[in-house]
Backbone:
């Protein structure tokens, strides 16, 4: 009985040894650091090789970002004077053009601005008439040079006051030529866009420092503001193409370009803000939305090798390089990243070298 059990154990051990990937020493020959594979070795069928080449490659960098309205395409509409809202011209979602009326407000301060304008206009007209009269008198030999000069100074001063009053009205998009004293002020939009916020309440009294009551934005184009690490900044440039992905809308294809790279580094995060301009005609990008921006770094050339070719030893990576006469030599490499099932090489290999792409672990026993 004991003889039978011993025989069975031997059979099991032999079977387990035959299933192990470890091959006998007869399948290779060590010659210094080189592993030679004889022609009749069964390793020949288990090892696959390929020649590496340097190819043009665009290494991709990813960064999280947030969608923001472009400042020049965004306007907060507030009243320049204290007063009471008496009319609204808009509703949420309306499209408005430049100088489109937003709301109308009755304001004593605006009434005073109108009075200042009319007073300055009358004083300028009187000064102009007086100047012409002094010029005629002096021309006819009955005037005094000093009076004419004083009239010129007075006219210049009154004209300057008039021009200032006109400019102050035009700031509020008021045409002085059609101004009627006492009329309400119509607050207008400085940009074309869409009403994205409407908090106008008829009869509401607004202070001079009141918060905006409407927001207008042109969202056909938006910014994606991303954070890129300090070590990666040199890899991108203005006008580089960027792909933007929205987690909530899988498969959405949005393209943009690098509009601006900030000159300031955030010392806490060691990152730099990158502004990406994107077309948003479909209104898929909403201000405040979180997205992922994928940058493409254009590299002159890079060597990409299959992940199956790379073996790990402690903290180092290496491959087996084929030499003359079916020899294989272990070579340390440095990598700079991965791309799907390929590894981007930083150093360690040269173009036209042949490496083991599959079965390299069979050669580990030889070392």
Residues:
């Amino acid at each position: 009985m004991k003889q039978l059990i011993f025989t069975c154990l031997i059979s099991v051990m032999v079977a387990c040894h035959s299933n192990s990937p470890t091959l006998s020493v007869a399948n290779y020959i060590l010659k210094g650091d080189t592993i030679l594979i004889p022609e009749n070795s069964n390793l020949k069928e288990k090892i696959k090789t390929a020649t590496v080449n340097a190819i043009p490659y665009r290494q991709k960098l990813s960064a999280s970002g947030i969608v923001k309205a472009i400042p020049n395409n965004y306007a907060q509409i507030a009243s320049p004077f204290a007063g009471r809202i008496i009319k609204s011209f808009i509703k949420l979602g309306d499209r408005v053009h430049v100088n489109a009326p937003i709301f109308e407000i009755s304001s004593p301060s605006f009434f005073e601005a109108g009075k200042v304008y009319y007073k300055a206009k009358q004083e300028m007209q009187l000064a102009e008439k007086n100047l012409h009269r002094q010029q005629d008198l002096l021309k006819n030999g009955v005037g005094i040079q000093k009076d004419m000069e004083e009239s010129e100074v007075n006219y210049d001063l009154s004209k300057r006051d008039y021009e200032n009053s006109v400019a102050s009205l035009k700031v509020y998009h008021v045409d002085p030529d059609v101004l009627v004293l006492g009329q309400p002020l119509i607050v207008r939009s400085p940009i074309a866009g869409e009403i994205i916020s409407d908090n106008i309440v008829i009869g509401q009294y607004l202070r001079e420092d009141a918060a905006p009551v409407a927001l207008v934005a042109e969202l056909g184009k938006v910014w994606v503001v991303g954070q890129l690490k300090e070590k990666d900044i040199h890899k991108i440039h203005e006008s580089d193409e960027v792909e933007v992905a929205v987690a909530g809308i899988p498969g959405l294809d949005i393209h943009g370009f690098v509009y601006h790279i900030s000159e300031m580094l955030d010392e806490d995060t060691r990152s730099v803000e990158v502004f990406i301009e994107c077309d948003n005609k479909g209104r898929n990008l909403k201000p405040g939305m979180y997205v992922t921006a994928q940058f493409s770094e254009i590299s002159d050339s890079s060597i990409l090798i299959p992940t199956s070719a790379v073996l790990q030893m402690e903290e180092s990576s290496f491959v087996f390089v084929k030499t003359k006469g079916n020899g294989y030599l272990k070579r340390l490499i440095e990598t700079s990243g991965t791309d799907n099932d390929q590894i981007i090489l930083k150093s360690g290999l040269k173009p036209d070298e042949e490496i083991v792409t599959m079965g390299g672990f069979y050669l580990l026993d030889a070392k």
About this structure: The radius of gyration is 40 Å. The helical segments are 2-19, 108-139, 145-171.
